[in-house]
Amino acid sequence: VVNFILNKNKTDGVLSFTYNRPQHPGAKSWSVGVSKGFGNLDTDGFNVLFTLSHDNQDKLQASDRPFSATGAYFPFSYNGTNYLFNNRTGNTEPANITFSAYPTGSPSTTAKSYSLNPYYTQNGNCGSPLAGVIADPTGTGSLGAIGVSCRFNYAATVQDLPSSKRDSGLFKGSVKLGGDNTAWVELALSKFEMKAQYAPAAQPLVLSTTRLPSLFSTYVTSFLTANNLTLGGNGTATAGYRSVSLGGRTDKYTTDARHFSVGLDGAAAGWDYKASLTLSNNKLTDTAAGGYSDYNQLVAAVAAGSYDPIKGTGASSLSSAVLGSEFSKSTSDLNTLRVSAQRDLWQLAGGTSIVSVGGDYSYTHYKVGYSDLILSQSGFSTQPASQDYPVGGNYGQVPFDASRTNWGVFSELLLPVTKKLEVTAAVRYDSYAKTHSKYVFSSAVDPVSGLQPQIADADLGSTFNSATGKVTVRFVPMEDVLLRASYGTGFKAPNISDIAGAATFAGSTSGSYTCPFPGSAGCLPGSAQYDLVSGPNGLSGDAGLKPEKSDQWTVGFRVDPIRGLSIGMDLWDVKIRNQVLSQGIAENVGFANPQAYASLFINPYQDPAGFSTIAFQQLPFNGGKAEYQGIDWDFSYRTKFDFGDLAARWTGTQMIKQQYNFGPGLPFNTDLGLYGPDQQVVFRTIMNFQATLTTGAFQNTLAAHYKSGYHDQSYGAGSSVFLANPDGSLGNSVAFPGFDIPSYTTFDWQGKYTYNKALNVTLGVKNLTDKKPPLSLQSGGGGNQIGYDGRYTDPIGRTFYVAGQYKF
What distances in angstroms separate CA 202 from CA 10, 153, 199, 590, 744, one per listed residue? Predict the structure, then answer.
């Protein structure tokens, strides 16, 4: 988000800069900006403003901080018991091989799962310091398969913070047209680039007598012969490969934003009016910048014998397979025409009432185009028939192109009933058309091609119409006492991406799970990552998505009991019906209750790479109800001393209630003070305190930021928490109730010196005490990082900064 402060008559110039230097490696940042205005609107009849800025942020690797360097495998203790958190995956390099087999001559129903890692068998290690071995002689332990398996600690290879840079510019010009009328034009441009690194690509490879037969013969057939076994299942084995030698997958995301507005402000016939036309456009390009490879070239190198993923030899032969091409380009347009006017109405006891009226019309268009590599393997008739795709990429997609129009009218009335009582009433009516999609596919598979055919353009979903309103009351019964209250209703239409599009392959789960349907052909050994499928809900009527509706109210006061002290408090409540959950049911909820959500599983599911697994569908839906209730407070105090002026402010929110359910009649869940089913946390208390002492040209500020503690993610038996054996090795998988994570408080300090009206310099320290994030076992919702929750804590640590501003 780029925010520009737009003064209508700014003529001075401002040059500013900031430099941040963390105490620990990584995450340096700096910014510089300049703005200058020309012309006085009142005397010259015009004013123009130019603004330019540049921001730069360095990356922070997980390996740069001890709390994230441990990744997905580390020991911990709780209530006197020693545990190991093990969320490593079976995709590694050198690769594991898994298959089912039974004693030759025995019934195939006696087949058992086997896992082997030939590299470990030969060398006694897993080939990487980030990989460790699990042994399971009987197939009944944590591996769930007879043999050994190397597990890769993927989370230790990611970033806590990606690198980025942004260049922004703005021009605004205003000109007097005569009288009280002013025309203006505004153009804002920005270019944002971010490089984000993820774990090396996981790519299971199918081995059989016809698919990579040399690997199958060398490693599978020889093992079966030596142990007098016959291959079961469908006659295939799977190599759990991860392209570790190619490094982490890196995406370069480039966003070009353009915002153009033209408008007219003025007065006519007793009305003050504003009219504007805004054209906003954003283009997001995703380009491979490392770690991704071409599947066909990978397989060709394996088939030619130049690269062996089982031994991990010949990785240099893959250099030509590394991708550097564009993956996708997204374009969004939001064009809005808005007109509003207001005028004085009646003279009341408290003053003049004011009425305002207006309306707006918007057109929203969003489209996504993909490269042929991303479009392949989708299962839709219009997409490339190629079997190639980017290893580690989000392939199996179809283009997206959808648009929608909406309009609204509104009115607001200010009534100063008496000198002490003021009432404001507002009403709005909104209407949303159906979403028009250019890419619509039949849900029925063509029996000849086996693909889902594309059908004509269509209007999807439903139309949405609603009236909403709000009433606000302000009452001043005596000097220095204000009572206030409000009640309003809300309305929010589903996003067009919730309605248009197609259900497509969306990668793998962030967490590892035991098979949700034991005995299924899609089961994977032990605790494993399964596939995800995401898509829209394009149905209409009762079967389609409904708009969110809400009711909210506030009751509060502000008093100034003594000079310099001001106290404000508000009790508020928000109730939401038909809450649109765009991301669908969280994966951890679905895998914890597979029978309850059986309709969302595809079992078995043919992964686009060719192997059999199970997929969980995450489709947008209307939840039941949600309610949020809390108290906000804002205390401020100012006083003067002989040595300077002191200003202090204490703000915060105390949550009283937070609950939601996933449908009518279903039980309520909560995230209040705990990691909830939607993988979120709602803190009971959030507070901020700031005290500033001004002594002449010097100003010192100390700030404190507080979040209350909460209960962390829990785990069932057979997932990612294991007992630690006395020698530190992995024991049995057990259920774990989750940590009670303590409260989290950080302090900031800054000192500012104002040399004169033109120049000031600031020195400061963020996270003054170098507070480390507390240990968290969250493995979903917080991104790729494990060991802490980066959504709620600071991974950078103590940071020193210098900033300055010069006006000219």
Answer: 55, 12, 8, 23, 35
Gap between the Cα atoms of 47 and 36, Å rounded: 11
User: How far is the CA of 661 from the CAs of 40, 584, 624, 670, in angstroms?
Assistant: 57, 13, 5, 8
Q: Exposure of 541 by Cβ count < 10 A (0-12 exposed, 13-18 middle, 19+ buried)?
A: exposed
State the Cα–Cα distance between residues 458 and 439, nearest whole angstrom: 8
**Could you give the CA distance from residue 186 to residue 169 in angstroms, rounded to a whole number?**
11
In angstroms, the Cα distances linking 565 to 559, 561, 582, 650, 661 are 8, 7, 45, 11, 42
The token duo for 708 is 């209350």
Helical segments of 548-683, H only = 587-592
- 267 close to 207: Cβ distance less than 8 angstroms: no
Per-residue CA distances from 204 to 36, 89, 379, 392, 417 (Å): 57, 12, 20, 10, 72
Beta-ladder partners of 61: 159
Q: Report the alpha-carbon distance of residue 350 to residue 258 in Å, rounded.
A: 45
User: What one-character DSSP code corresponds to residue 742?
Assistant: P
DSSP label at residue 675: B
How do beta strands 548-559 and 565-577 pair? Answer: antiparallel
* H, E, C per residue of 59-119: CEEHHHCHHHHCCCEEEEEECCEEEEEECCECCECCCEEEEEEEECCCCHHHCEEEEECHH
Q: Which of 66, 152, 76, 156 is nearest to 785 (CA)?
A: 156
Contact 102, 111 (CB under 8 A): yes
Q: Report the C-alpha gap between 500 and 535 in whole angstroms.
A: 8
Beta bridge partners of 689: 650, 704
- The pTM for the full model equals 0.90
Return averaged pLDDT per consecutive 10 residues of the chain, 808 residues in all. Answer: 52 96 98 96 94 98 96 95 94 96 93 95 95 90 89 95 98 93 97 97 93 95 96 91 96 98 95 97 98 96 96 94 96 98 96 97 97 83 81 88 98 97 98 95 72 85 97 96 98 95 84 88 84 90 93 98 97 96 86 90 83 90 93 98 96 97 88 94 98 97 98 90 92 93 98 97 98 93 84 96 98
**Rounded Cα distance, 20 and 748, in Å:** 13
Q: Are 311 and 118 in contact (CB under 8 A)?
A: yes
Residues 6+ away with beta carbon under 8 Å from 148: 115, 116, 117, 120, 121, 133, 134, 135, 136
Nearest in space to 148 (alpha carbons), one of 97, 101, 100, 111: 97
